[in-house]
Specification:
Layout (H helix, E strand, L loop, with lengths): L2 H17 L4 H11 L4 H26 L4 H25 L3 H37 L17 H18 L6 H9 L5 H26 L4 H21 L5 H19 L4 H25 L26 H6 L4 H4 L2
Helix pairs in contact: 1-2, 1-9, 2-3, 2-5, 2-10, 3-6, 3-8, 3-9, 4-6, 4-8, 5-10, 6-7, 10-11
Length: about 325
Amino acid sequence: MHWTLVLASLGVGIVVGLTGMGGGALMTPMLVLFFGVAPLTAVSNDLVASAIMKPVGSAVHLKRGTVRLDLVKWLALGSVPTAFLGVVIAKWLGNGSDVQALVQKALGVALIIAATGLFVRAYMRLAERARKRDGRAAPLPQGRPSLLVRPLPTVVIGAVGGLVVGLTSVGSGSLIIIALMMLYPRLKASELVGTDLVQAVPLVAAAALGHILYGDFKPALTASLLLGCMPGTYIGARMSASMPGGIIRRALAFILLASALKLFGVSSKDTAIVLITMLALAVPIWMVLRRRHGFPALVRNEHRTETPGEPAEVEAVPDGAAEVGAVPPAARME
């Protein structure tokens, strides 16, 4: 048993529970960068661990009725075969240093996309808040809103997401949910997370099966990940009701960007320069966007009526919280 890995996984689990960030975007880079695990091995074992954890939250959302099974069907139609295909492609390329380098670079690209997705999610919620404040948003429907399902683009989202997950383990809880938000903006937050979590079950299961057969699955490594991540996710989910998730998510975007740069082999000095430059640009840009939507540049200067138990920056239900069935009060408010 790798106790240092268990403790590190506990930390990752807490972050997942706090922020809703998919575990693959954090766990896999940690294994590669800090524990020297080969990229393909890291992907294989993270996916198997995810396949064990995903059904727990799925059962919770199915019981609550916050899952769009019509969307899950089309997403799975695209994601299941391509998730397995991603593993086959990696196997076809071989097990040498070249394929390890390819997986590492693919993981870096996926992390950059995930970091960009965090910004997109924050901006979409800012714009939605502005529409609701100004009365431009559609009135909340009574009961479940009607939804026009678009099969072809939904299958394409699943197929692309499945391929990325099969190759890198990143995407089931970060990339696909962004695409769903853009394709189906009428989905409520709880339904968005529930649908994404349930569709991830067959996706991750297919990818995990492929990695067990053709990847580099190590049972002891997966056991260490689960031993730390499962209680960590629960702890983080319980803490998420009182923690500023929006700020943590923005910090995570920089962590993901830093991890991606290191996976690309960028030196520590150049990584620091890039991060400082991004920070110097991101803060004023976000302030301008807030002002453009009629909010004060700084959140602390914002005065608005808050629902009891709801933080100033309303976020979707954290994925990690959903996985353990502990949904924060703010997320339960529709």
